[in-house]
Write a structure and sequence with these properties.
mainly alpha; 60% helix
């Protein structure tokens, strides 16, 4: 059975405050390692079987990695990549907004408690995301251009403009508006 320590040991293999390139780019070998080691646990988390992990900062972090990050690696380009997003946000609301577990973690670890809000297509969640990420402004790595805080603002700008993330439209079976199609054709990046 997978434990929170297994998830965190894999995800933060280079240390709890070190960014890994594989986290935010396509890496087939990294995705395969996640599939081999954590596909069953990711599904169990999605079904709510691991919700008891949300009672302590470290295990809550592991749960949010299973709910918010691993599905994006395991199901790229499909609706399943986003299928546990609402569950991840509910856990994040509890562990971050109600219990402030984030304050017990390293700054890089906190990013993964905040990303469920950044991944939301709700403007209110985007506002929470930006506020949380702005709290990391004194960390030069996160405050640099194209850093974590900048990406939070970019995600918010897309939701402010379109009310959703147009790059998800195909995976979610949604038709793109003319404005979204133009934006996507121009690169549609963050």
């Amino acid at each position: 059975m997978t434990t929170p320590a297994d998830v965190l040991g894999f995800w933060f293999a280079e240390g709890p405050d070190t960014f890994r390139e594989a986290w935010f780019k396509r890496d087939d070998a990294f995705d395969a390692a996640i599939r081999d080691r954590f596909a069953v646990a990711t599904q169990a988390a999605r079904e709510g079987a691991l919700d008891d992990w949300a009672t302590q900062p470290d295990s809550a972090l592991a749960l949010l990695v299973l709910l918010d990050q691993f599905p994006r690696n395991l199901h790229r380009g499909s609706a399943e990549a986003f299928a546990s997003d609402a569950h991840a946000r509910a856990i994040a609301r509890d562990v971050v907004l109600a219990h402030r577990f984030d304050l017990a973690l390293a700054r890089t670890e906190r990013v993964f408690l905040y990303l469920p809000f950044e991944h939301s297509e709700s403007m209110a969640d985007q506002d929470v995301s930006v506020a949380l990420f702005e709290g990391l402004r004194d960390d030069a790595r996160m405050a640099k251009p194209d850093g974590t805080i900048d990406y939070a603002w970019r995600h918010r700008a897309v939701i402010a403009r379109f009310g959703r993330f147009p790059h998800r439209n195909v995976a979610l079976g949604r038709d793109s508006t003319a404005a979204e199609a133009t934006w996507l054709a121009a690169g549609g990046g963050f």
